[in-house]
Amino acid sequence: MLKENQMIVTSPDGVESICEILFTHEHNGKSYVVFEFVDSHEVSAAIFEPGENPDEGTFSDIETDEEWDMLDKVLQSYYDELDAEEEEEDEDE
Q1: Nearest by Cα to 22 from 49, 54, 45, 55
Q2: What is the SS3 assignment for the chain?
Q3: Dihedral sign, Cα of residue 75, residue 78, residue 84, residue 85
Q4: Predicted structure pTM score
Q5: Which residues in the chain show pLDDT less than 70?
Q6: Residues whose CB falls within 8 Å of the CB of residue 43, separated by 6 or more in sequence, listed in order
Q7: For the sheet containing 57-60, what is the strand order?
Q8: How far from the centroid of its chain's Cα atoms is residue 90's Cα?
Q9: Is 88 left (phi over 0), alpha (psi -120 to 50) or beta?
């Protein structure tokens, strides 16, 4: 059973992997999903294109270096925020 922040990604060769959604990001009219594979902890991203049902849609590959650079900066900010939250928690203890 999937948790609320998880999804199944199917590779082109039909292999299904469970991924944890780290965050979503909107930019220039596109919706991006940044996710981590549960088994390998590899982080990746894709463009999300919503389907007719709210919980369904398709992913398409990110094809430009500009998009990857933008997402890399957003991901770094995400990690920086996590680090700051952990430091605050450590100080409170």
Answers
A1: 45
A2: CCCCCEEEEECCCCCEEEEEEEEEEEECCEEEEEEEECCCCCEEEEEEEECCCCCCEEEECCCCHHHHHHHHHHHHHHHHHHHHHHHHHHHHC
A3: negative
A4: 0.82
A5: 93
A6: 22, 34, 35, 36, 37, 75
A7: 6-10, 16-27, 30-37, 43-50, 57-60
A8: 26
A9: alpha
Q: Which residue has the tokens 């390998």?
A: 40
Nearest to 83 by CA among 39, 75, 36, 35: 75
User: Which amino acid makes up residue 42?
Assistant: E
Burial of 8 (0-12, 13-18, 19+ CB in 10 A): exposed
Residue for token pair 């998880």: 6
The residue with tokens 């463009």 is 47
Cα 58–chain centre separation:
14
